[in-house]
Specification:
Elements lengths: L10 E2 L2 E3 L5 E4 L30 E2 L8 E19 L10 E6 L5 E7 L7 E20 L11 E10 L1
Antiparallel strand pairs: 1-2, 2-9, 3-5, 4-9, 5-8, 5-9, 6-7, 6-8
């Protein structure tokens, strides 16, 4: 699961990617072009580099509680969540927590992702479909104050059924 360019698949084993129809937000923006909605735009292609804006989601280095989340259009049954980090910056996918919430923001499932191997992408497959998911949230444990503690997300996919 290490795709770097192209469009994201819209379905997986008969399940639809529900994220693109949702509304994404994050705790802060590194700059105005690195907003939360970039991570649900349906494309793996992401410009990167120094001195310019990227086409990915990126929180501020001064953010003390970085998070990214997507509110799905409707309460859904979720089977898998796929997360792809900013190309070339897999180390920034360390110390994540994936949280699935219902419409009242009650926690349905919470999973820590340490990522000591610095994978650039990962998937979370649920043994059984999880019903009534409204929000998929990523939280990062803040360890210091630098770009290395920012949340950089290229693509988030949420596979399930409404």
């Amino acid at each position: 699961m290490n795709k770097a360019s192209g469009n994201t698949p819209r379905e997986l084993n008969g399940l639809e990617d529900l994220a693109p129809q949702g509304k994404a937000r994050q705790s802060s923006n590194y700059n105005s072009e690195m907003k939360a909605s970039n991570a649900i735009r349906g494309s793996f292609h992401s410009q990167k580099g120094f001195g310019g804006s990227g086409t990915y989601s990126h929180t501020s280095a001064n953010d003390n509680a970085p998070f990214w989340e997507v509110a799905l259009k409707k309460d859904s049954n979720v089977s898998e969540v796929h997360i792809y980090g900013r190309p070339g910056y897999a180390r920034r996918l360390k110390n994540l927590k994936v949280v699935l919430l219902d419409s009242d923001r009650s926690i349905l499932l919470e999973k820590a992702w340490e990522n000591e191997s610095q994978w650039g992408a990962f998937s979370m497959k649920l043994l059984n479909n999880l019903a009534d998911v409204k929000i998929v949230r990523l939280e990062k444990t803040k360890l210091g104050n630098s770009d290395e503690t920012t949340l950089n997300i290229n693509v988030v996919q949420v596979f399930g059924r409404v």
